[in-house]
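Journal club prep, shared notes

We agreed each person brings one worked example of a sequence with its structure written out as tokens. Mine is Acetate--CoA ligase family protein. I'm keeping it raw so we can talk through how to read the token line rather than staring at a rendered picture. Sequence first:
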Amino acid sequence: EWVDERLLDKNTVTLDTHQTSPLFKLFGFNVLPTWIASDEIEAVHMAENIGYPVAVKLRSPDIPHKSDVHGVALNLRNSREVSNAAQSILDTVKFSYPSANVHGLLVQGMAKLGSAEELRISIAVDKVFGPVILLGQGGSEWNIAQDAVAALPP
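Then the structure, token by token:
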């Protein structure tokens, strides 16, 4: 079964890429390889295994919009870039958001330009309709008011 029992906790509000990838694979979506690293040394090791270029992203349930806190580094092409980006992300969060619960970093392969789309899926509870699924373009420029479409779950 794809669901990790820890995800069923009532206090879980968001799931990251690493947590949702098994579900997307189950439904036939192609997903990029994603690994969890605790520090810059592990991030470099993961990047070497995945192959360059990679993205390094902050993993914290307390900071939902990683790009707002410089928690995302894209198109990293070698171990030096990965190490520097990972350390910078962790240092910035430690300094700017000392109380944030940080679960390390996501290291993810980069999609070839033009061959993939970034998707954002959110669930909201509407006062009238109840649970609503919001689908839209992913990425740092995502704007729910402009880019999302709503669907009611079955």
